[in-house]
Amino acid sequence: MKFLISFFLRKIPRRYLQLFSHVALRIVAIFYRGNQVVCPVCESQFRKFLPYGRKSRSNALCPKCLSLERHRLIWIYLKRKTDFFTKKATMLHVAPELCFMSRFEALENLEYITADIESPLAKVKMDIHQIPFEENSVDIIFCNHVLEHVDDDLKALSEMRRVLRPGGWAILQVPFFYPLPKTTYEDKSITDPKEREKEFGQDDHVRMYGEDYGSRLASSGFQVVEERLIDELSEEEKKRYALPAKEIIFKVIK
Asked: Is residue 79 classed exposed, middle or buried when 0-12, 13-18 and 19+ CB atoms within 10 A define those classes?
């Protein structure tokens, strides 16, 4: 299973995975029945989660809703630390994750907008360098594991800050490869996919973020809050929900 998932992630374009992978995995879910792990997003139980990643991680992917470790942590954060599920808000979800989409869409308090440059699931086709919304028009932005792909992440951050209303907030997660470099590393002359994977951790990444990620967000004018919810949870919860060993939730406020 590890080999198959890794192969599909490398060889099948993301837009096709988004359209069809959840159907196939629901069949696979039958063989993972159990009660050792629980997905807090869809509340399904399994003996374990599926492996996931180009360099496969065990016990990572919920076969029912397709949540990963970081998604499950974010869901718990939203539930326990925010008024996300009750306060009226307009939300822009960039490169929307399938595990969240139907659940956010169903929330009566949210005006929910999905956007992506290529995803067939998103409502709005959008280049994050030029967000087609007015200044001060949204309250919440989710943009997870996107900035490592875009040509100019500082321009994208500027655009997100522009469209956020004063007091609005965003969750902006990126992948980290340990040990972290001190400063974010990018080199636009590196275009070969194999070299990009070697230098940036994945062949479609254009930079590797370092210890300066928080200050990079702050340089765009955001107030940065580094939420360490993972450190507040019990070992039992971490195991039960199969959460990441370490993950800071980067919440920024305009």
From this structure: exposed
Q: Residue 77: helix, strand or coil by DSSP?
A: helix
pLDDT along the chain (254 residues), means of 10: 51 55 66 90 95 86 94 98 98 96 97 94 95 98 97 98 98 95 96 93 94 97 98 97 96 98
- Here the tokens at position 21 are 């992978």
Q: What residues does each domain of the chain span?
A: 2-67, 71-253
Q: Where are the beta strands (DSSP E) in the chain?
A: 33-38, 45-46, 50-52, 57-61, 89-94, 110-116, 124-125, 138-143, 164-171, 185-186, 207-208, 223-227, 249-253
Which pTM value belongs to this model?
0.89
Q: Which of 179, 180, 199, 202 is CA-nearest to residue 189?
A: 199
CATH of domain 71-253: 3.40.50.150
